[in-house]
Amino acid sequence: MLDTTLQAIAEPRRRVILGLVLDRELSAGEIASHFDVTRPAISQHLAVLSAARLVTVRRHGARRLYRARREGLRELRAYLDQFWDERLGLLKKAAEAEEQRTQRRDA
Amino acid sequence: MLDTTLQAIAEPRRRVILGLVLDRELSAGEIASHFDVTRPAISQHLAVLSAARLVTVRRHGARRLYRARREGLRELRAYLDQFWDERLGLLKKAAEAEEQRTQRRDA
DNA sequence: CACAGAGGTTAGTTTACACTTATGTAAGTG
DNA sequence: CACTTACATAAGTGTAAACTAACCTCTGTG
């Protein structure tokens, strides 16, 4: 989840998209019109954001309306908070858990 | 900068490294010993983290000691804060500024 | 100074991903 | 019902990046 979120917002264009639909709904076409690239490219970015649950989609006639889903950034925010938190054991625990998942076998 | 930071921590192994050196200094070798991959791979990850200013390096004899630099995550934290902030104009402004940078020419 | 240990650097390979072109599908319009 | 609009999906391409193997550079020690 954290991984999915970070991968999604690591791409600059996707951050711009997120900013565009933060406080208003926009159709895929309206979003695409803000960029240089082709519409399918934006469509793919929207799919990534959607899979990461950083946006919601709503069909309205032939249109698809997108809007940012702020909840999707909660976990990342919590992760970062631990870097300032006094009791850092939580972060270490999380890091070690991830380490377990990352490497299959151990010495 | 934000981009550099996000790219750096988007890689899972680098997040684990960051967790390892969060509250203590570790040598490159000690860090590498926590992973399955070869030392050069870790060395490269450390270079990325260092370039993103997410870790500091200190030479102690033949060793290089690494430690997390929490300040490096300030900007990212500020970016995320705007998603919860009431006055969202700031984020929109940032997004538009990035958009300007992203696409060279405009209609 | 020779040699061993610690670790960064280079070159080459593989995989992931952002992109384009082409095609498919659902919803409105004459 | 033909046609257009709105958008997604598929297939193919180029490039970035994570990795390995091999080499190079320091630092400390006999």
Question: Summed up, what is this model?
Answer:
The first copy, chain A, has helices at 2-10, 12-20, 28-32, 39-51, 74-81, 89-102; strands at residues 26-27, 55-60, 63-68.
What's the arrangement of secondary structure elements?
Two copies of one chain form a homodimer.
Chain A: H1 2-10, H2 12-20, E1 26-27, H3 28-32, H4 39-51, E2 55-60, E3 63-68, H5 74-81, H6 89-102
Antiparallel strand pairs in A: 1-3, 2-3
The structure holds a DNA duplex (30 and 30 nucleotides).
Described by the principal axes of the CA atoms, the overall outline of chain A is: elongated
CATH architecture of the largest domain in chain A: Orthogonal Bundle
| Amino- and carboxy-terminal Cα gap of chain A | 27 Å
Give the CATH level 1 class of the largest domain in chain A: Mainly Alpha
Largest sheet of chain A: 3 strands, antiparallel
* Greatest chain-chain contact: A-B, 37 and 37 residues
Provide an overview of this structure.
Chain A starts with a helix and ends in a 5-residue tail after the last helix. The first copy, chain A, folds into 2 domains: 2-70, Arc Repressor Mutant, subunit A (Orthogonal Bundle); 73-102, no CATH class. With 107 residues, chain A is of the alpha+beta class. In chain A, α1 (2-10) runs antiparallel to α4. Chain A contains 6 helices and 3 strands; from the N terminus they run ααβααββαα. The structure holds a DNA duplex (30 and 30 nucleotides).
